[in-house]
From TrEMBL:
Pfam families: 2OG-FeII_Oxy, DIOX_N. Involved in the regulation of shoot development and salicylic acid (SA) homeostasis. PROSITE patterns: FE2OG_OXY (PS51471). The lineage of its organism: Eukaryota, Viridiplantae, Streptophyta, Embryophyta, Tracheophyta. GO terms for cellular component: cytoplasm; nucleus. Its main location: cytoplasm. Belongs to the iron/ascorbate-dependent oxidoreductase family. The keyword Cytoplasm applies. GO terms for molecular function: L-ascorbic acid binding; metal ion binding; oxidoreductase activity. It is found in: Cytoplasm; Nucleus. This is Fe2OG dioxygenase domain-containing protein.
């Protein structure tokens, strides 16, 4: 196997999709990194985006809440985001239908080429990484929609329509969040809006089938997202964030209709470390399939993200090297994420900070 294209050797071999009654050795996580089946639940800052448009005083309060959440957790959730519930529900249900298809149908999209615009896989890098994860995914580029939608699955037959609708609404929302975040950094709402508008949107549709021993495997290992920001829609709980207050993993509760927002690595860079890209992971359960749709928003593929000059000073010099989304893909190509090396650490001028 050349590591880029997958031979029929690994097709249809994934334990998650076979519904095995046990967890194979290659999915077993070291004891110290295992998840609790009864995790603490985190109080997630919940921001009512409807208030952003209710006049300058109200907006200033919301921007203050965004700033606090980004500084403390690198994570918040949004209600009143303006995307109709049916759009959310239909995106989740066509994702569910896609994963129910026979492996032979999904395998048409199978690839370990991290640069590919559409790919299906059954761990981080199928068959290559030392520890596998109890996850199946479909990733695809989504902006500009007209350029990419033709490469997406057309089985189930409404996949393109329902996912396309969700993606374009989420893209609009990502612009409002970007504006709120740069405003909250004191550099104004339009600081990078043009570059973000023309930037990348990568969708990861995740499926976590029931796991016979959820206490010894993970759906996704601890990581931060390589985006500027990520918007997540989940069908049920399973996402955990590292709580910076007491360094403990805590579960994000389900709030019907809300969307979760992660600060990604590139907003950490933009903010000179004032905002932290939040570390998160996914835990499993033994009775139901969990579906999530992560929408990662970044600048253009080769556009470099650096720290805002306004946020650097003599006392507070720049702490990060600039990098592009493509630089991240190259990093991913050459590293095994399960081994704990992170992209954001490679960007730090002083790795110990
Ligand atoms: C991701 C991710 C969380 C989830 O795809 O980067 O963190 O709940 N997903 O699936
Ligand atoms: Ni993530």
């Amino acid at each position: 196997m050349d590591g880029k294209s997958l031979s029929s050797f690994s097709m249809g071999k994934s334990a998650q999709e076979k519904g095995l009654p046990y967890v194979p050795e290659c999915y077993v996580i070291p004891t110290s990194q295992r998840a609790s089946l009864t995790p603490d639940v985190v109080t997630v800052p919940t921001i009512d985006f409807g208030r952003l448009k209710k006049g300058p005083d109200e907006r200033a309060l919301v921007i203050g809440d965004v700033r606090t959440a980004c500084r403390q957790l690198g994570f918040f959730q949004i209600e009143n985001h303006g995307i109709r519930q049916t759009v959310l529900d239909e995106a989740l249900s066509s994702a569910t239908e896609f994963f129910k298809l026979p492996v032979s149908e999904k395998a048409k999209f199978m690839s370990n080429d991290v640069h590919g615009p559409v790919r299906y896989g059954t761990s981080l890098k199928d068959g290559l990484d030392k520890i596998q994860f109890w996850r199946v995914f479909l990733k695809h580029y989504a902006h500009p929609l007209a350029d990419w939608i033709k490469y997406w699955p057309n089985n189930p037959c409404n996949y393109r329509e329902t996912m396309g609708k969700y993606c374009s609404e989420v893209k609009k929302l990502s612009m409002e969040i970007t504006e709120a975040i740069t405003e909250s950094l004191g550099i104004g709402p339009t600081y990078i809006s043009k570059k973000m508008e023309d930037g990348m949107q990568v969708i990861t549709v995740n499926c976590y089938p029931p796991c016979p021993n959820p206490e010894i495997a993970l759906g996704l290992p601890p990581h931060s997202d390589y985006s500027c920001l990520t918007i997540l829609l989940q069908s049920s709980p399973g996402l955990e964030i590292m709580h910076t207050g007491d360094n403990k993993w805590k579960q994000v509760p389900q709030l019907h209709g809300a969307l979760q927002v992660h600060v990604g690595d590139h907003f950490e860079v933009l903010s000179n470390g004032l905002y932290k890209s939040g570390v998160h992971r996914v835990t499993l359960n033994s009775d139901r399939t969990r579906i999530s749709i992560a929408s990662l928003h970044s600048l253009g593929l080769e556009e470099k993200m650096g720290t805002a000059n306004e946020l650097e000073s003599e006392e507070n010099p720049g702490r990060y090297k600039e990098s592009s989304f493509k630089d991240f893909l190259n990093f991913l190509d050459n590293n095994d994420l399960a081994e704990g090396k992170t992209f954001i650490n490679t960007l730090k001028v002083d790795e110990n900070k």
